[in-house]
């Protein structure tokens, strides 16, 4: 297949990434479907030509440059101190020394996720914000159980992120057990939290979001959160200790809207405990030991709109039950042993906006069943048996925004059927080795494209002229084609002003 496509979902390595790399951007098997990330808040000093910066902007910029000259910002209004703090974090200029200037500043948000050097010595100043502190992100830090003890003075804390904090154990959870106002708690990738330690969470009665992804010791501990009736989002992905018995306590979480249990040992029986979750709209079962028989239970979930069954044991047998999930908007069936026979039962799912059939045994005829899906915006058909004829059935998807057909048998004739999809913004046709410059000519009218990948094809430098009309293009990938970086740069400089990423480069 070659390395240019880089499209297949990849399993996370169980080894921790290097500390020098931001772990929030690590790939996961379901990254394309459900994921979240945290970004540093920042003050934007980029002004349009001719604009004059405000006095406040100039002051914050100057303070950031001369931070070592200041001992305390406690006399400043809180919102100004907050902006100074955010700017220091964004520019990587905050140190344990300069942090002291923010003691008793009543800051509300301290986003220090993945910030270098954060440890227990920072916690005294952090806790000095007292009842004003609402949100703290310490992910990837060296804070220990002792450091967490400082947070007991921040009784109004609403959000606490402790992802990848390797030195926090059950004892650390005891330190935050009194923070009953917490609505969001994230403890991803923690080997030290046990089922017994989970009992401490039972007192956090206002929790709305709980993230325990990659916590391998929590089997049997979910019983302690069954009383958290305000919980709306629960993430226990990649906890391979989770079994069917862990599902029963979840039946009490009547407000649950999002549940992620991918790569666990849960089977169809475990899924049966979810029948009563009438508000559940997102369910991630990627890599679980379920078959199409689980659809009997899922049919009792009236609001289910996002369903991930990627890499499960789904076959054509029992697929007729998909027709009962009429409210589905996002469906991932990638890497399952299904054929066109299964697609016939998806015909009635006319609310679908995103459908992934990656590496399924889908052919041209099966796509006839998708012809009436006018709401479809994202379609993945990579490594299927879909060819030129099948694309003809897609010509009436006027709302389609993203189309991926990698590693297929497409030719220039098939690509002609794509040119009618005027709303396309992302198009990936890599690994179709028979495509030539004529394909670029066919898609030259797709002026909304922002991302195009035609790697491992017969595209040449001569064909680049057809891309001149794609003024919105930001990413262009033509690896293993007969094009040069020089010609792509020339095209960018003269016709594609928004192109920021291209290969070869």
Structural write-up:
The chain is built from 13 helices and 17 strands. Mean pLDDT is 90; it is low at 8-45. The chain is α/β, with parallel strands linked by helices and 505 residues long. The chain has a 17-stranded parallel β-sheet. The longest helix is centred in the first third of the chain and has 13 residues, at 78-90. Helix 1 (55-65) crosses helix 2 (78-90). Strand 1 (109-111), helix 4 (123-127) and strand 2 (135-137) form a beta-alpha-beta unit. The chain has helices at 55-65, 78-90, 96-99, 123-127, 145-148, 170-175, 268-271, 295-298, 340-343, 388-392, 412-415, 437-442, 485-494, and strands spanning 109-111, 135-137, 159-161, 184-186, 209-211, 233-235, 258-260, 282-284, 306-308, 330-332, 354-356, 378-380, 402-404, 426-428, 451-453, 475-477, 501-503. The chain is flat. It has a domain at 401-505: Ribonuclease Inhibitor (Leucine-rich repeat, LRR (right-handed beta-alpha superhelix), Alpha-Beta Horseshoe), CATH 3.80.10.10. Pfam families: LRR_6, LRR_8. This is F-box/LRR-repeat protein.
Keywords:
alpha/beta, 16% helix, Leucine-rich repeat, LRR (right-handed beta-alpha superhelix), single chain, flat, 13 helices, 17-stranded parallel β-sheet, 505 residues
What's the name of the CATH homologous superfamily of one domain?
Answer: Ribonuclease Inhibitor
- Which architecture of one domain per CATH? Alpha-Beta Horseshoe
What ranges have pLDDT less than 50 throughout 5 or more consecutive residues?
8-45
Terminal-residue CA separation: 21 Å
- The portion of residues assigned to helices is 10-25%
Number of strands: 17
User: Which class do the helix and strand fractions yield?
Assistant: alpha/beta
Shape: flat
Question: Regarding CATH, which class of one domain?
Answer: Alpha Beta
